[in-house]
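Form 12-C: Joint structure prediction
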Amino acid sequence: MAGSTYGTVFRITTWGESHGKALGVVVDGCPAGLELEERDIQLYLDRRKPGATGIATPRKEADSVEILSGVFEGRTTGTPISLMIRNTSQISGDYSEIASCYRPGHADYTFDRKYGFRDYRGGGRSSGRETVGRVAAGAIACKILKKLGITVCAYTRSIGPVEADMSGFDRQAALETPTAMPDRQADAAAVAYLEDVRHDMDSVGGCMECLVEGLPGGIGDPVFEKLDANLAKAVMSIGAVKAVEIGDGHEVSRHRGSENNDSFQMREGKAVKVSNHAGGILGGISDGDTIVVRAYVKPTPSIFRTQQTVSQSGESMEIKIKGRHDPVIVPRAVVVMECMTALTVLDAMMLNLSARMENLTAFYGFGGKQVL
Amino acid sequence: MAGSTYGTVFRITTWGESHGKALGVVVDGCPAGLELEERDIQLYLDRRKPGATGIATPRKEADSVEILSGVFEGRTTGTPISLMIRNTSQISGDYSEIASCYRPGHADYTFDRKYGFRDYRGGGRSSGRETVGRVAAGAIACKILKKLGITVCAYTRSIGPVEADMSGFDRQAALETPTAMPDRQADAAAVAYLEDVRHDMDSVGGCMECLVEGLPGGIGDPVFEKLDANLAKAVMSIGAVKAVEIGDGHEVSRHRGSENNDSFQMREGKAVKVSNHAGGILGGISDGDTIVVRAYVKPTPSIFRTQQTVSQSGESMEIKIKGRHDPVIVPRAVVVMECMTALTVLDAMMLNLSARMENLTAFYGFGGKQVL
Amino acid sequence: MAGSTYGTVFRITTWGESHGKALGVVVDGCPAGLELEERDIQLYLDRRKPGATGIATPRKEADSVEILSGVFEGRTTGTPISLMIRNTSQISGDYSEIASCYRPGHADYTFDRKYGFRDYRGGGRSSGRETVGRVAAGAIACKILKKLGITVCAYTRSIGPVEADMSGFDRQAALETPTAMPDRQADAAAVAYLEDVRHDMDSVGGCMECLVEGLPGGIGDPVFEKLDANLAKAVMSIGAVKAVEIGDGHEVSRHRGSENNDSFQMREGKAVKVSNHAGGILGGISDGDTIVVRAYVKPTPSIFRTQQTVSQSGESMEIKIKGRHDPVIVPRAVVVMECMTALTVLDAMMLNLSARMENLTAFYGFGGKQVL
Amino acid sequence: MAGSTYGTVFRITTWGESHGKALGVVVDGCPAGLELEERDIQLYLDRRKPGATGIATPRKEADSVEILSGVFEGRTTGTPISLMIRNTSQISGDYSEIASCYRPGHADYTFDRKYGFRDYRGGGRSSGRETVGRVAAGAIACKILKKLGITVCAYTRSIGPVEADMSGFDRQAALETPTAMPDRQADAAAVAYLEDVRHDMDSVGGCMECLVEGLPGGIGDPVFEKLDANLAKAVMSIGAVKAVEIGDGHEVSRHRGSENNDSFQMREGKAVKVSNHAGGILGGISDGDTIVVRAYVKPTPSIFRTQQTVSQSGESMEIKIKGRHDPVIVPRAVVVMECMTALTVLDAMMLNLSARMENLTAFYGFGGKQVL
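Section 2 - Result
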């Protein structure tokens, strides 16, 4: 099982390598009747493109999406939506050197161990380019969620030592700054910091965060299919993510129960939590509060310094990576996190439709008549 | 989908509530020919039982496992292994009070939101008792892994502010101390600390860690079924876990690429990493090094202080939880983490069998003849 | 993958062998709020018990079901329902002889090929007793369908050369006659015929049919998850079934399009088909008409005549099967077919809930508020 | 769940409609190291193209396949193989008339019931063109099976009343005759018969058969994932198939156990069956003998006679279908059956790799070292 399918009822299957002819995704299980056009998807793909600033790779990726199936007269038909993005700017020559050795921090070695050989051009299937399929599919999930009053929003929390100040959270800044930080001052500091990093021929890690607002309570299942468990898988499946947390995350390990428990209170006739240490999930099920997910991303493994490694033929050697590489992964990964979160939440919402007998009865009515 | 099934080819389905007649698990896809008896499983169940020390609930849970199917003349037959643990010590009276209100930090509210009502006795399906099925199944996975030369070992890293000193890692201590710490001094400090916590009618969180040693490279799949993604899901599905990390985890966000990259080196004719910041996984696939997973656990939500909450009928109220509750969850969750890790690794190993044409050819031979 | 799980959202996992301690099933994904007690399930289990007549095995199987989890105060909670049936009347001695050779028409040989050895007592997991779990789970599915106005009803069409006359279809007869035929005259003829068969120390095959009435249109998915494809799998998974058909079945191969096409007509403001050659399914999706499924069952392989076979150690030998065996499988398999059909239809109905955007909008409302 | 994915470890996802831009399939889980080029796949696609003879539609479909990913330097890499076939000859004008009414025998009505509307051009996703994705994927499965010494071969058994004489089975004829019959005389008779059918502005059904030779024993799982159950689903999922049978099929219902049981005998030191009424499967598991599957196909629903139907707006009306339609579906469906059978068998073989502890031990060796 090569593992390129995600989701149970809203199910996506991605394909494509860094330097193949094209990349794409098949979205199966999208409800019929959603207005959908290429522009809806392009908007998200554009957010993962390398920007014009100094902090991202100077590669140009057009990443133009084409809808090949599943949409008729501007609406989804309920059948598979096939989306394709042609590769246009890949220069295979850049990578020929690394065909026969293992770059530290990359998947070269493990692919060889697993499959016996690998497509060495630009990381092949383990390249960050693999995420274009996720983002194209996630754009559709986000559009559906928006129609249901739910917004998903990811941004950069920190780059190396530079942290965004969340007290003046600025959503627009997150969409506009080169670092995707919701704080223009921190963004400027991070850009300057990244200049130093690049000058050192080095790279650096960072942290990103995703909020889901408007999600009703009751989403997610107990035991193995907990909403937080599936979010953890979704986010950890993004290359370079090494830690995932919900709500207060790793800090809970030092907290007391009396501070960590969120009390309930009635507000406008509704039970609400007075705080949100839980990050919107209790027992694996959404509690109606904002979902808070955080991901910690390792430094870009491709650095321009000389590194020690071994060759395929078993000899110690030095390697000096060339090519075009971002000094930090986070800003471009933010939209991928947003999309993986949206896909996970939507699938859980669809699975929740059959949670109660009264839902089945309301839907299929008496005498087997479908009432909706 | 109630979500009580875990795994693709080594697949378990757990069932049972805190105060029902029994709890259990069906293990489907276990290879035929494994020697198995109840004692193999009991050993693991005993590790999650409340101990005799002051830090765990004084409840007595016999947790005697019975093998109901799938084993014949002492060996597994390849058909489903049904394991049952009868509930013996549950006192429903303790919980009647909380039937109509929502305990902070518990899943009472979210179960009501999802299902319309809930089995309020002891948390029902969201109780920690649900994990007996996971541990019973995990014991089998661990036995198989051991036969393949792979060991899985979890322990407590910290309880509140008390951290184990990993420099003198003492595996035996982890099995014997009441805190499951691999450091007898830290254990003593943690036990003293927990006395204070209990005296404050409070609880505290902690951190646990799991190592997988001996795992060959090549296990796990690229993209969505990455080994680390599945480990994150497995571990986050344990109630009370709020953060999961691999290798250096959340600290990578402040690291430089030059420190985070693990160089390769030849050692005894084999490529090995000289460090293990990656935690044994590159690009979602095991690299032959030790797998390192960490989980951060929130404080036990059941504390004996008065807390603010609301009732099912929508009134603000105070609640004072009675009953028997551990001041910290970690020591008893350690074996659950070990089992979830084992189940995840074994399933990935089984799925890896068909990764290469040469494996199929070696197995089924020429002319369709099975050679093994 | 031992393959003991069936269904995607209404998902069952069966376990247990002919001569083990017990058999059972875990039903996961049952909606919350369904009234359920053991009697609901016992009713169906009793229908697959050997009767008092001469045509069934004189074995006595109490088959008393116990609900171990998932039901609280008389209603399902949405968590796994574990059902167990203790084995009481198994006499292992009867089977010791066949431990080391392969009975013709049985799975002895193939289990040995697959697993290296087998539980030889009474067929182990390949015994007809395996179906008690399916029937216990199916009883729940039938109860849910009934609440939605849908009935599932299976019966015997023929036993050897004796066919039921469908013109005077008598549903009560199907429940009361020893052959499960909906025709008391044919039943009498079949009973007499079976006496001859038994006298010849032989067995015979037959045909069973299942109708689903009241199912709304729109259930089932195009392409691989067609409703008829899933029914074919469900029914073919019943041991001894060698052919499955929908509507006119194998006879369509000789029909012309002009006779086989069902015309549409308006009736009471609704489009209906004037005939039902299609058996209620077009393009894999229910059309609102009665679903018609038929299964052809091979003769019981256990016959009391001397047969040629080989031993495990590779020698030709003769075998004369002893024990207690029905001369025809059909009458007891009818309720299994009914249950597998119900499970398949219910799962498809649940998956259909997310087929349209307007359903999601109606359910989750605007602003993410759950309206049901 | 739109249901466009098939298989567990060798998993395909098809997409595309009759008159969309393109159709295709993503093959995930294909083992690494298989030599693969477009010609391997084109060979199979060409077999489902309408021929030059009078019996098939005069439409011209180039059906040129393009490999978009998953193959590097002529070999599969273990990552998803994306295959695309551009639509070139679709004339949407032909179908505009049927946009607002329901063709008898087609899925127009059921798609509208399910999704609220449909892509009415040429049947959209319910068109026979959907099968190009299945055939492209199946070609890869067939190539792998061939390397393991296993051949899959389907052909036409009968068209209307004309049956192939199986005594002089001629495999080459099956590949060359316009009817795909393995009997040139019957082919000639069938072609003449089809002329009459076409002259009557009618269509006719038929029967096709598929053999799997060289499959080792032990493939398939007990209970729900029986090999025959999965074959039944695979074959019934082909549009227009109304009955599926294994071995003697529906005729077993009239047979006695003494004739239906296949005796075992030692031959060249191996246990073999002396007959094959079982069709190569016992208890859901292959027995080493030839697998025999049969499918009965309904007459093409598109006939040129006037038919009664209703419009979307609920009025009775007459319809006269235009366009280009085969008078019989079977000859072009034969390769689809072959491919669905190959996909099913290969997936079962892959899942079988972990059936025994000794296989795991042989593969992963002692000390966790991978030995293959």
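Section 3 - Comments
The longest strand of chain C covers residues 151-159. Chain C has one domain: 5-368.
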